[in-house]
Write a structure and sequence with these properties.
The radius of gyration is 15 Å and the shape is globular. A 4-stranded antiparallel sheet has the order 2-3-1-4. β2 and β3 form a beta hairpin. The protein has one domain: Dimeric alpha+beta barrel (Alpha-Beta Plaits). With 101 residues, it is an alpha+beta fold. The two termini are 22 Å apart. This is GYD domain-containing protein.
């Protein structure tokens, strides 16, 4: 199942402006890789940033949102950001479902 992780932080907590946030951020990618199996994350499909919006967007293939939530806590994403986890659907699957009903 696909999930979007939308993590928003304030400018004062931005890794560009805050040395503690920078330290956490520099370790996040490696922490995700080393813990993804533990949290049933099949694959990280994308990790994007909008620097001026102070938002990270991570697209994951995972078993469930609770595991994604625990991963966000463990790797430190929730330390500096408010996190929203959103289930995502592939457009082609939605289109097929619409056509079949």
């Amino acid at each position: 199942m696909l999930f979007g992780v939308f993590a928003v932080h304030s400018p004062d907590l931005c890794p560009l402006n805050n040395k503690d946030s920078k330290k956490i951020f520099l370790q996040i990618q490696n922490k995700i890789k080393t813990t993804q199996k533990k949290f049933n994350i099949t694959k990280v499909l994308g990790f994007y940033m909008s620097v001026l919006e102070h938002e990270w967007i991570i697209i994951l293939d995972a078993k469930n949102a609770h595991d994604v939530e625990q991963m966000c806590i463990t790797v430190g994403i929730s330390t500096t950001s408010t996190v929203k986890i959103v289930p995502l659907n592939d457009l082609e699957k939605v289109m097929a479902k619409l056509k079949s009903t």
